[in-house]
Amino acid sequence: MENKKRINWFFVLIAFTLGLTLNKHIDFKNLTLKEPFLDILYIIVFIISIYLIIKDYKKTPEK
Question: What is the CA 47 to chain-centroid distance, rounded?
Fold first, then answer.
């Protein structure tokens, strides 16, 4: 039985929202953060959500 590859939309929504927020909070010219503690937490959760999206998409089908 084949499992179709699907995207987990919950993590996509989280990654999209955090990506937009990080884009507003990071000053790319000076490489500084507006709120360092909160932005580091956003970066960690953003990376975890991207990892989970890729992991769920690459899940191998069981035979």
Answer: 5
